[in-house]
Amino acid sequence: MVRYWVSGFTLVFGVAALKTALVVGFILQKGSADVATIVGLFALFFALTSGVAYICFKQVTKYQANLRPKKAASSVSAPAAKESVIARYAPEWGLSQAEADVAIFVAKGFSNSEVAEMRGCAIATIKSQLSSIYQKSGMGSRYQLIAFVTDEICAIANETDAEHHQRTTSVPTRRILPLVGRSKHNDPAAVQA
């Protein structure tokens, strides 16, 4: 903090000295520039530059203070991550915990064999769980799942607090944006059946 004050004082001092030198060199006549006039001009320019610097400093700190709560508020809501999107829709889709975990891995771009290795199970199990995920979510492939999750992350990252509240209380996205393969599950009861 002291470094900022020293830097600010040095900058104000330099600007005031420069202004004084310019006025003495270009405006005042060569014989009329005595020491009292030069010191008076320097004091005037130092005071004016200090006032402008203070006002600018206050405006910048006010602006930064207004930004902090917005950043904090946006980080308090659900983070824009693939895990949060899957966690948000897993109960609605009726996914088990294992299916939700597999959906997260798939949304992150892992192959079936990589997911099977990380989960310590057979590839056939992963394929079966993926089939169940696609059926319950109404999506037809891993690419649709990845696209859906990516779209949701972009929407979460760009929404304001009012939009976030409206989004969590409005119609689910799968009804608004029907993708190929979702048309067979327009009714939420049919998805859970």
How does this structure look, described?
This protein is mainly α and 193 residues long. The protein is 77% helix and 0% strand. Helix 1 crosses helix 2 and helix 4 packs across helix 6. The protein is rod-shaped, with a radius of gyration of 32 Å.
Overall helicity = over 70%
The N- to C-terminal Cα distance equals: 63 Å
- Tell me the total number of β-strands: 0
Percent strand: under 5%
**Oligomer kind:** single chain
Radius of gyration: 32 Å
What is the ordering of alpha helices and beta strands? HHHHHHHHHH
Describe the protein's topology.
Blueprint: H1 2-27, H2 35-76, H3 82-93, H4 97-107, H5 112-119, H6 123-137, H7 142-158, H8 161-169, H9 173-176, H10 188-192
Helix pairs in contact: 1-2, 3-4, 4-6, 5-6
Features:
193 residues, mainly alpha, 10 helices
Brief characterization of the structure:
The protein has 193 residues and is mainly alpha-helical. It contains ten helices and no strands. It has helices at 2-27, 35-76, 82-93, 97-107, 112-119, 123-137, 142-158, 161-169, 173-176, 188-192.
